[in-house]
Design goal:
The chain contains one helix and four strands; from the N terminus they run βββαβ. It is mainly β. The chain is globular and about 30 Å long.
């Protein structure tokens, strides 16, 4: 699974990229539901959210 860190700028680039809808808007940053996140396995070669994040604030946990 992945997690969005405090460096998130709330740009929303990641949310529509998630094939399993694991990303949602939190109060100040976007949140990954780690119980839903599949690391895009079976969908993409790499996590889609990581690929589009302009500030590289999404980390593997």
């Amino acid at each position: 699974a992945h997690r969005i860190t405090e460096e998130c700028t709330y740009c929303a680039a990641c949310e529509p990229e998630c094939p399993v809808n694991a990303i949602s808007a939190g109060d100040e940053i976007y949140i990954v539901d780690e119980s839903v996140c599949t690391d895009c396995e079976g969908y993409y070669d790499e996590p889609a959210c990581v690929a589009v994040c302009p500030v590289d604030c999404i980390i593997k946990v």
